[in-house]
Amino acid sequence: MNFFKKAPTVKETQRQNDRELRKAGRDLDRDKVALEREEKKLEMEIKKMAKEGNNDGCKILAKQLVQLRKQKTRIYAANSKISSVQIHNKAMGANIAIAGAMGTTAKTMGNINKVLNPHQIARDMEAFKQANAKMDMTDEMISETLDDIMDESGDEQESEGIVNQVLDEIGIEISGKMANAPSVARNKIGDSATDADKELMAQLAKLKS
């Protein structure tokens, strides 16, 4: 014999109550059907005695019919009460399910709150913000340093070298033209030599502009 039988849960109790209420309703329905059959028999007997002129017998059966109909009314009332209790029992079961779901939800939320410490999250976000700002600052410094390196005087020297090379090529070209020019043109003051100088000065001006 088990002296430590586990107590039924609230949900199990609710189901057991629902089964018992359904059984009680069925029993009342059977009693009601039996009373209706008896009611019809009494009505037929009363009619028969009335035709025979048996007034005393009719009165006795009429009293029985009244009591039977009162009992049938009680069955209707009991059935209505059982239906009401069944609805209440089902509503109680629904409320138990809702309460259980809310309890589970509250427990889950509590576990989440334990894992997600708001103060720790705030500290982590602030650390991320500072690290991100530091990374942006470092990236900006590296970019500025690279720009400074790219803008050093070596570029200017290379540019001057290219300009000098172009000027040398122009000078060689002009010298070649002057060497091939007629001697009369070279002896005339202000003619060929002056034109060559003007051409050289014009090209120098274009390079400087």
UniProtKB/TrEMBL annotation:
UniProt cross-references to InterPro entries, sorted A to Z: Snf7_fam
Skewed-composition ranges (Basic and acidic residues): 12-32
A Pfam family per the record: Snf7
GO BP of this protein: vacuolar transport
Superkingdom field: Eukaryota
UniProt region (Disordered), positions on chain: 1-32
Similarity annotation: Belongs to the SNF7 family.
Listed name of the protein: Charged multivesicular body protein 2b
Organism: Papilio polytes
